[in-house]
Amino acid sequence: MISSIKKLLHNKYIDYKYKKIISKHDLYYDESSTDNILSNDLKINGCIYINNFFSKDEILSDEISNDRKINWVGNSTSVKKIAPFIINEGSLAYKILKNKELKKVIVDYLGENAKLDYIEFQKITLNSSNKSISEKWHYDNVGKRIKVFCYLNDCKNIYTDYLIKTNNIYHKKYSIDSSRISENLKKKYEQNSKSFFPKIGSIFILDTNGYHRGVYRNDNELKDTQENMRKMILFEFSNIEKSKSFHRTSNIIGPRSTYFDKSVSLDDLLIDKNYLTDFKNFYLYDLNFTRSF
Questions:
Q1: How do residues 250-293 score in pLDDT, each as one tens digit?
Q2: Cα(45)–Cα(249) distance, rounded to whole angstroms?
Q3: Domain tally for the chain?
Q4: Do residues 58 and 69 lie in contact, with contact meaning Cβ atoms separated by under 8 Å?
Q5: Could you tell me if residue 90 is inside a domain?
Q6: What is the pTM (predicted TM-score) of this model?
Q7: Which runs of consecutive H residues, i.e. helices, occur in the chain?
Q8: Domain that holds residue 117
Q9: What's the CA gap between 91 and 7, in Å, rounded?
Q10: Which domain CATH number covers 7?
């Protein structure tokens, strides 16, 4: 009984606090056009898929694609494994960050305060014995945030479902419990449902304020093949001013745990250099630290 009351009060506090921060910083759009086709598609639909952003040869030649060199780590309850890595000049991650068209789309959508939050190299295997709350239909409880998936392999069994045009819904609640949507609400937008499948060299851009879910399991017999595994580089971008406001309450958004080799030119990247910390061979990009060089 006491724990239930504590949870209820905590959720009410989160709903109030997060809504106040998000209302102050997020941009919402009508369906008016812009001078950029990709930006306009993202504003209207909440997501865009770009085929062949990289060639297959570019993907396979990058050192991050070689599983034999990867040290995958993860906790015992997570569906995903991640591999820490340092961003080098010429790497796939660096090419994404430097791409002028992609930067324009992100700034057009999030505004002039758009900055990189986080980069993660991850792998998910079909039918994991672990479960993820992202498998349920939901919106992320941080308001408008852009995620970019750069796919490193083809996969028909692990993919993302998105309810098109739900990105501009203004939510009234933002606790984890509140952000899982009901079946009735999902049915209201069911005609807008679309599945996005990983294809090597392609990228998927989405606003996580829209309704979405990850599909990580089916009834097929598990076999150790590429079709039963999704490998990708994940990028997150948000309004840095919103991130700083959130940081006083929670560390769920904003610059964190991202590493740049010192040989990398940091100019013209969507990063806030105030949160780069100088270590021996690399820079740590993290809101928990302040600039030290």
A1: 678 999 999 999 999 999 999 999 999 998 889 999 998 765 44
A2: 30
A3: 1
A4: no
A5: yes
A6: 0.93
A7: 2-25, 37-45, 56-61, 92-98, 100-110, 176-179, 183-188, 240-247
A8: 2-285
A9: 44
A10: 2.60.120.620
